[in-house]
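Reopening closed ticket. The problem is back. First fold of the pair:
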Amino acid sequence: MARVTIAFLGQCHTSGYPGVPSDRTFPQVCRRAVERRRPGMQLDVVLEPYAHPFDLRRAVARASRARPQIVVIEVVGWLAIKGREGVDLSRLPAGVRTAYQTARHFRHVSHRITSRLPKGADLVYRVQSSSWEFANSLLRSLVPRFPRPTIAEYERCLDGALNAASQLPGVRVAIQGPGAPNLSLDSRGLASDALERYRAVEGMARRVAAAHGVLYVERWDTVSNGFFLPGSIRPGVDGHSTWGYLLAEKLMAEGFV
């Protein structure tokens, strides 16, 4: 059986979050779609979440340890939109380097605690909720913060990541552009110029992909009714399914797999 390792560098989209379990994220949808269409091929998925564009080059270095044949870099619009600060988790201990790993750790702790308690849904819910709140507060207190990146800074980081990836032997790279923002959010959850900022990020990602001659996966027009989780900038299960099948089709059409 042919085995291909594909490394995904992205945000929480790659690892899942409440409302989208890890096996329903777009990397896993993509893996299953390729394996169905390519009998005898197995895709080994490596996840390297990056919390801030400043960590992209280091994420490439971490992913290289798995010796991938394909690297897929996700560019997202909200990094240049949401809030005033971005968070870099790279200086945390290796075991809790990412928000995903930290959340998984505290979920394990909460499950261990609740398994020893009398059966009571309300009590279990309170314990689990407290564990999540503790995990979030721990992250906020420990991680260093950097200013929200400008488009130019994001571009330099992405360019540096592609330069690093080009040094890896036998690796092909794809960049996924951002989807359009969830314009149904109220004014508190969406910047007044969010559409323009997202478009600027999309143009930047396309420009960098063209400069390096790598595959660009256009996701802008994939957003439709039911794509996002209610009241969220994050795609729901259907959104991840759309992105996963789109990526699988592009990788197969371009001969990556």
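Second fold of the pair, where the issue appears:
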Amino acid sequence: MSLSRRKFLELGVSSLAGGALGTSLYEPHECVVSEVEVRLKRLPSAFDGLRLAQLSDIHFNSFMTADHLNQVIERTNAQKPDLVVLTGDFVTAAPQMRDRMARAEQAWPCADVLRRIACPLGCFAVLGNHDYDTNADVITEALSTRSRIQVLRNRAIGIERDGARLWLAGIDNVTTRHAKPVDALFGVPNQECTLVAVHEPDFADEMRKFPVDFQISGHSHGGQVRMPGVGALYLPRWARKYPMGHYKFGEFQLYTNRGIGVIGLPMRFLCPPEITVFTLKKQA
């Protein structure tokens, strides 16, 4: 059967649209592992080659089930990280105040899955804006008691290996105005290598003022939906300058993770969810 040119084009457009929709609905389950080498001048030799895994923006809900998150954790453990850092938004905020506590309580089944994370140097976390918009204390309690994850709310911890020390500082949420970098870095020697976790990537412009070597963030979801030649259709505040990937500013570096969950519609397009595995190397 012959087709008119117009009908042929209509069918082609419909097929492309259907394929794009199918891809966008499927893509949230196609988590990729991004291997990133980060060279730091102040990194102690004892930590040369350290593998740090980052997960962000889990948004545990009906779109991010325990089974789905289990698969992500299995894939994370398969990378054999030495250290794991979670950069916020474990749950999703509710528009109605009366529903917020119920959303916060979802942190408990989320923490039950996260307890399966395996890494010898420990698992640490900071909170995101959705965590604060539900109940930050409930999220913190769930992570610390169920999963033994240390939540760094404007504080730092020294990680030791073979007599050397590497600092990890956690900045509390920026969007909700809880970030206090001076408090977080209190007691951290200026000359020692320091990593910082903060949910919002654009806060890097502030962190660059401090003796910090490397910041890891999330928050943006990479835009979640990206169009060729256009980029992200929407980016939240505090994630518009540095929405995804690796950025370098002299001796200071930043990486923005695309996250593994979704908010709004369960849709991603040209922006797959991401587990990031950093290999820290001492720069000569």
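Update: turned out to be a display glitch only; the data is intact. Confidence is low (pLDDT under 50) at residues 5-23. Residues 254 and 269 are 24 Å apart (CA to CA). Please close again.
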